[in-house]
TrEMBL record:
The lineage of its organism: Bacteria, Bacillati, Actinomycetota, Actinomycetes, Micromonosporales. Transmembrane segments: none annotated. Residues 102-121 are annotated as: Disordered. Signal peptide: none annotated. Residues 105-121 have a biased composition (Low complexity). Pfam families: PadR (PF03551). This is PadR family transcriptional regulator. It comes from Micromonospora globbae. Residues 12-85 form the Transcription regulator PadR N-terminal domain.
Amino acid sequence: MDTPLREPTFLILTALAAAPMHGYGLIREVAALSDGRVSLRPGTLYGALDRLVDAGLVAVEREEVVDGRLRRYYRLTGDGEATLTAETERLRRNVEAASTRLRARSGAAPAAAPRLAGGLA
């Protein structure tokens, strides 16, 4: 993927970098990674996972039946790891550039000199 990743996609890949996970585990992990800012619904998650599988960034690790329901575990592929690494580096460079500009901005505008009591009326 040459374009920047959308935040939910970035967080899904980040979650899978730790270990293979099933859908509900991914929903919880993405919420935790984003401090609750990103809340994936099952339809959104599985649509994203289908796209990531098609792109070769994620693969099905295994399937098991739990309480009569199929649970599918997903894992990060080598291409997925490379994509996540590249995106992490891109974001790091952006943060570094913004931080440098903000530091320069705060240093470029010195505080106004304090007013002394008295003076001309």
